[in-house]
Design brief:
14 helices; mainly alpha; 77% helix; globular; 0% strand
Length: 410
């Protein structure tokens, strides 16, 4: 419904700032709910939580379809924000459960399973804006949401009959959230995922108005551009996930900190490239495809690295800690989405598309500096472990197969 929401708001005379806030509601609730979902997994059945959340998501989406008939923009914004918050809350629970279940079943293929989950998500993200544009042009706001709600209902039925329950409840080893949060080196990969998602979500709310004003193209082309953008993730993510499990995931994460801001210079394109590269449909689509390839480099190693660093430092990984780390990691995606969507809507009120994307890329260079600092911090943690400075020997998911190589060194 992203392209539907953006174009529908534009047709109603709702500005970019309000659209950014509306789109940011879902990731905002993800952020709040993900840690709560991690705690709930300690106590309740994963499948029961999955069914309840998916059912509520379907109901709320059906209700959202009726808002196209609300004539007052004020009431429309209030109601759609409320419903989007509920959608975000249930989406957050579903996300955490999916990652927790796969991490439990496939402990030695964390990056690969992460990439598969994110690929499935991005397949939906890839096709949804394009289909949303088509449905909006065919039947307006109502049809787009009804089709989405029907799709969620199909997923609910499939979950009931096709998903078996996996035990993710707290074990005797205990564990608590504070033990994760107090270690910067452990949770920093989640923040880096969030930073990557800021760039990934920054242009989404402003892309449709930009292509309409610059290329006189409708929401269908904006949806197609986002389709190519997420197709870059879908095509490369499984291969990158497999490589991260077998090679050094820290290198992938560090590479993203340098490559992503540079790729953003070609999106506008940046004003200082004006004499070299002109704005065109081809330039826009190609750049979005490249960004789609680079985003997994920063996001997908995160969960594997967090598991690795916790195990290196504390020697064991209780189920409760796995749930908390998974929740923190899942919250990083909507955190970046929330910040990116909200920032773009506000900035676009004052700056052009090219200026907005250039400024945010330069701001991201601060993250590049932080990643360099984090790599030094990780090296010191692992060096202390190898020298006996920590109370446990180095043993981690990355070393499970070879029993003691330097494979996981930063």
């Amino acid at each position: 419904v992203v392209s539907t929401q953006s174009t529908g708001n534009l047709d109603r005379g709702i500005g970019s700032a309000s659209t950014g806030i509306i789109l940011a509601c879902v990731p905002l609730c993800y952020i709040i709910v993900c840690p709560i979902a991690g705690k709930l997994l300690d106590k309740y059945s994963a499948k029961t939580m999955l069914l309840i959340s998916t059912g509520m998501l379907a109901v709320v989406t059906f209700i959202s379809a009726a808002l196209g008939h609300v004539t007052s923009n004020t009431w429309f914004i209030v109601l759609i924000v409320l419903l989007r918050l509920i959608q975000g809350a249930n989406g957050g629970v579903i996300d955490v459960i999916a990652f927790a279940i796969t991490a439990k079943i496939y402990p030695n293929n964390i990056a690969l399973t992460t990439s598969i989950i994110e690929t499935s998500l991005n397949l939906a993200v890839a096709f949804s804006p394009f289909l949303g544009g088509v449905f909006y042009e065919a039947g307006g706001f109502y049809l787009s949401f009804v089709v989405t709600a029907c799709a969620v209902t199909v997923v609910l039925i499939g979950t009931f009959f096709g998903v078996t329950n996996v035990d993710t409840k707290r074990d005797s080893a205990g564990g608590n959230l504070f033990s994760v949060l107090k270690e910067v080196a452990i949770w920093f990969p989640a923040w880096h995922s969030a930073a990557c998602m800021i760039l990934f979500n920054f242009y989404i709310p402003i892309l449709s108005p930009y292509v309409q004003a610059t290329f006189n193209a409708g929401p269908t082309f904006a949806g197609f551009a986002l389709l190519i953008n997420t197709a870059g993730i879908c095509v490369t993510a499984p291969f990158l996930g497999h490589a991260m499990d077998k090679l050094n995931p820290y290198v992938f994460m560090a590479a993203s900190a340098f490559a992503l801001p540079v790729s953003y210079w070609f999106l506008g394109p940046a004003p200082f490239l004006g004499g070299v590269l002109a704005a065109s449909k081809t330039q826009l689509v190609v750049t979005l495809a490249v960004i789609g390839v680079l985003v997994p480099l920063g996001c997908y190693p995160g969960l594997l690295i967090m598991f690795d660093l916790y195990t290196v430092k504390f020697g064991k990984m209780p189920q409760a800690v796995k749930n908390y780390i998974t929740a923190i990691y899942c919250a990083s995606f909507p955190l970046g989405g929330c910040i990116g969507s909200a920032m773009s809507g506000v900035i676009a009120e004052k700056l052009t598309f090219a200026q907005s994307t250039t400024y945010i890329s330069f701001a991201y260079l601060l993250e590049t500096v932080l990643v360099i600092w984090w790599c030094v911090l990780v090296y010191r943690v692992k060096h202390r472990s190898a020298k006996g400075g920590l109370t446990v020997s180095e043993s981690s998911p990355l070393l499970a197969e070879d029993g003691g190589s330097n494979k996981s060194s930063c």
